[in-house]
Amino acid sequence: MKGDLNIDFTMAIILFISVYAMLYILLPSATISFKKTPDPLQTASTYFADVLTVTPGIPANWSDLGTVTKLGLAYGSNVTSYPNIFDVNKILAINGQACSSLKPKTDMLLDFAIKVDCNTCGTGINYSCTGTIPTIARLIERVGYIKNGSTYTHAKLQVWTW
Fold first, then answer.
1. Backbone angles phi, psi at 93, to 5 degrees
2. Average per-residue pLDDT for the chain
3. Eight-class DSSP state of 141
4. How confident is the model at residue 36 (pLDDT cuts 50, 70, 90)?
5. In this structure, are residues 82 and 18 in contact, taking their beta carbons and an 8 Å threshold?
6. Nearest alpha carbon to residue 74 among 86, 65, 63
7. What is the pLDDT of residues 145-158, one digit of tens each?
8. Interior CA angle at 123 toward 118 and 126, to 5°?
9. Rg of the chain over CA atoms, in angstroms?
10. Is the dihedral of CA 50, 53, 54, 59 positive or negative?
11. Which DSSP helix (H) or strand (E) runs through 43?
12. Which 3 state secondary structure label does DSSP give 117?
């Protein structure tokens, strides 16, 4: 008969549309990957390493820890700073100092340790502040150069925070 709709066919269409709509709504949530919560200690460590490598500190041409108010290791003047170029005088000033004594000269609320690794430059000399680094510390490394007069030596800055 013309225009006769079977009840079985109608129920099959309703069931098909219902299952399709349910899968369309629920399935994307099963395939979305969730982001891991960022580690706040890692974020602070990265920030501190960037500050040390990019800024010369205040004052910009400090070479004695008694005159510095903000710690920064980049070579520079009051007008210009050179990221990833470390001033040898600043590195020598922090060498052998207690890392805890450097903390008031930073914006860091965390404890930290700093090491400038020159094993890659052939001299085998490492400069660092002294402190015990716990196993839970985060390590951030930045590659750069040490400027000593007109010579540049390849070095790696390592910053631990905890």
1. -70, -35
2. 85
3. E
4. confident
5. no
6. 86
7. 988 888 888 889 99
8. 40
9. 29
10. positive
11. helix 40-54
12. strand
